[in-house]
User: Which sequence fits this backbone?
């Protein structure tokens, strides 16, 4: 089904081409890689605070489901091939298989989901809808990330309770994610208002219901 709403990148660059899509995918992967270097380690957990998730959400919302998913898939591939694109300059399969591997693997899915929310319902035009979509995508990242973290802790540290996993992989990051939600909920709808496209009716619609 054709998207009901165009994401920002496709509005600024309306002429579809493989060159455009390639540049967006590469640019999105580099954007997330740059934000991954914003890293605050926490002494009680192997999972640091980073800027990655903010980049994932912005790329998904700005590029749409397909290009957002591909940009984050490329990001993972770049890190696997040895580029220092993971948190704190990490790279390689060992990093992906480590404590934070579940969060990384969730990034393409979260970007694709965010892009789908934008294309289907235009959530980036409304602060409240954007915040709700961000929280939904964050929940997806938490679910996969904490599940993987629990397995990693049980294998590398010892038997770990579900509460301990949540205390190491979810609870410490909620305040930061709420701040990211507020920033994105302010940034994207404001950009649409500047473009004069804040109302859904102003956007191209498909004939599909």
Assistant:
């Amino acid at each position: 089904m054709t998207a009901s709403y165009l994401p920002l990148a496709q509005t600024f660059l309306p002429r579809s081409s493989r060159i455009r899509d390639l540049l967006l995918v590469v640019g999105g992967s580099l954007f997330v890689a740059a934000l991954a270097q914003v890293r605050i380690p926490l002494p009680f957990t192997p999972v640091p605070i980073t800027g990655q998730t903010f980049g994932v959400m912005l790329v998904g919302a700005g590029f749409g489901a397909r290009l957002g998913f591909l940009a984050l898939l490329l990001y993972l591939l770049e890190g696997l091939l040895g580029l220092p694109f993971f948190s704190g300059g990490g790279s390689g399969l060992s990093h992906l298989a480590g404590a934070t591997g579940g969060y990384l693997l969730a990034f393409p899915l979260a970007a694709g989901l965010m892009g789908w929310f934008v294309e289907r319902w235009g959530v980036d035009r409304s602060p409240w809808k954007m915040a709700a979509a961000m929280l939904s995508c964050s929940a997806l990242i938490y679910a996969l990330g904490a599940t993987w973290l629990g397995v990693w802790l049980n294998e590398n540290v010892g038997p770990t309770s579900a509460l301990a996993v949540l205390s190491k992989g979810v609870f410490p990051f909620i305040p930061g994610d709420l701040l990211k939600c507020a920033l994105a909920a302010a940034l994207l709808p404001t950009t649409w208002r500047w473009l004069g496209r804040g109302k859904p009716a102003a956007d191209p619609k498909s004939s599909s219901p």
The radius of gyration is 17 Å.
